Amino acid sequence: MLNLLVFLGSARDSAPPRPVRLGLRVARQFELQLIDKGHSVELIDPLSIDLPASFKPHFAYAKGAAPAALGLLAEKIEAADGYVMVSPEYNHSMSPALAHLLNHFGSSLFSYKPSAIVTYSAGQWGGARAAIGMRTFLSELGCLPVSAMIHIPKAQEVLAESGDFGADTDAQSWQAYFGRAIAQLEWWAAAARAQREDVGLPAAAQAFRRDPSQRNAP
Asked: What does residue 169 show for φ and ψ, rounded to 5 degrees?
C-alpha cells in the first residue's frame, strides 16, 4: 500500500464557465482508482486549505511558527510516497491555484518521489499544453513526473459530477488509458520508498529549507 496525495488544481467554485469545478470530477476519479488498488489516498483541495492572505513559504517560518494549515499539509507532503497533480490549462500554462499552493513548500518535502500529471479541459485539447510546463515545475520540486501523462478533453462528458464515468463513456478504454500512468506511478513510488528505507537520502543532497541560495554554485 502506498500513501498518495491527489492535488486538485482548481479553486474556482462559481460560474461561468460551466460546469463549475470540472477538475473535482477528475480528481475524484483518480482518488477512486487509487483506493480501488488498495492505496491510502487523500484529495488535497485548495478550497479546503486556509492559506495566509500574504504569501510566505512554509520553510520561511521559524520552526513551529507556520500557520496550522501549512504545517499540516507539509507533514502530509513529507509522509507521502507519490503525488497526482490535476490541472486545467490557463493561457497554455498550469493552474495558478495549483502553482500557488505548491509554491508554499520547498523541494525537500517532495524530493525522491514520483508524480503523475493529469490535465483536463471542457474543450478538445485536454489541457495538454499545460502539462508541458508542469514537467519542469514538478522536476524542480523534486517529485519527478512519470513519462505517461493523462489528458482528458471534454471532461464533463467523460465524467459525472461524482467522479464516476458518465453513462455514455467507454469506461474500459479510459481505465486502460489511465492505467499506464498509474502503473508507472506505483512502480516508481514503491521503488523510491524501498530505496529511501534501505539507504536513506544521499548525504550530498543539501536540503532546500531556507532560501534559493542553498542551491548556488560555490
From this structure: -90, 140
